[in-house]
Amino acid sequence: METHIFGKTDMRVSRLGIGSYKMSAKAGGSTVAEVRRLLGQALDAGLNVIDTAECYGQGEELIGQAVGQRRGDYYLFTKCGHASGLELPDWNPRMLELSIERSLRRLRTEYIDLLQLHSCSRDQLRQGEVIEVLQRARDAGKVRYIGYSGDRRAALYAIECGAFDTLQISVNIADQEALASTLKRARARQMGIIAKRSIANAAWKTQYDAGDSCVQVYAQRLGALNYDFLKDDADTIADTALRFTLSVPEIDIVLVGSTNPAHLQHNMTLLAAGPLAPSQFQAIRRRWKQKTWWRRPLRGSMAGWKGCV
Prior knowledge:
By secondary structure, the chain is of the alpha/beta class. It has helices at residues 32-44, 59-67, 93-107, 122-127, 129-139, 152-160, 182-188, 213-225, 234-246, 261-273, 278-290, and strands at 3-5, 12-14, 16-19, 49-51, 75-80, 112-118, 143-149, 166-170, 192-196, 253-257.
């Protein structure tokens, strides 16, 4: 699979990356054998990015057990900030230090390629302590690069402060705010850009987790956007949604989450098919802009999201 340089790092990454949230206990859980099969197929096909987080249930442990022996075949990204079981508050510097050590043990590795702060607020970033923890880990050789994972004002600050190598941000058919200026600012800083929630959490489905505030917001937005393609079958909608995100030129890596090897293979087929036709991509963009989300927001404010992947 074709690879490219990731921002100002020395990593040559695949355009698709594997998000591990669906493997975790929070999303139903997978066995080590299932994860080994899925990730083994991905690595054999040339995908070389695995993204996880210390708060994704047993996600880090599953990855370490499943493909730890293939460490040279992939870049390992994880996130910190919402650790459980350490008896310290979120974003406490000591908690972050302990969390990093625990992630290394769980992932069965001596270093993490990219460590990201997991959606901490702009105020927390401004205080500087959380950034300094990641910088110390990098200086100690535990981490190669540091990044920020989050959205809106905090993401803008993460770009402007100049401390981070990468930005992981929401980009999808129901969340295009970053396309207005955020991605271009990150690119101007030579930051590597990762798209999360790449198919809007499949919020067009009639059956979804009503307790998931992230999905509720996207479902409300899609109802208001009423794209023509939302009348298609669910699989075709998913294809269009993923190809939309893959069509955004500033994005280096599009994360896809699945526990089904057939779905993974299909996503690779969509990548090979290339971006959406320019007319379809622009039609989706125009529909979004007509709603003027940032000036006159509809129902479904993104403020206060905590714990969303």
